[in-house]
Write a structure and sequence with these properties.
mainly alpha, membrane, about 110 residues
Amino acid sequence: MKKNIFILFITLAAETLITLLASRAFSIRFIEIMFFSGVLFTALTVWFSSSGGMVTKFMDSTASAMTGFLSKREEFSFRPNYAVLGSVIFLLIGLVFFILLLTNVIPPS
């Protein structure tokens, strides 16, 4: 259990650091891009946590075409883990800040 919580916090810290570096590079406030980077991070972690998707089907088809052997098709399955949970938490925090920015509760620069 401690390892899973550690993975969650490492994911949150890494996403925060990457977003902070991006905000510095583009001269944008951190909370202005937090939601959008959260969407990107969540999509990437879901993409790499699942199996049997489009890429798998393409690779199986390519291998079948090259070798002539048919392989068993793998059905799409999503495997939620603590990295995905960390990305979703980052996304939700970013969504709250984004809504507060749009409603001018957090004033513009």
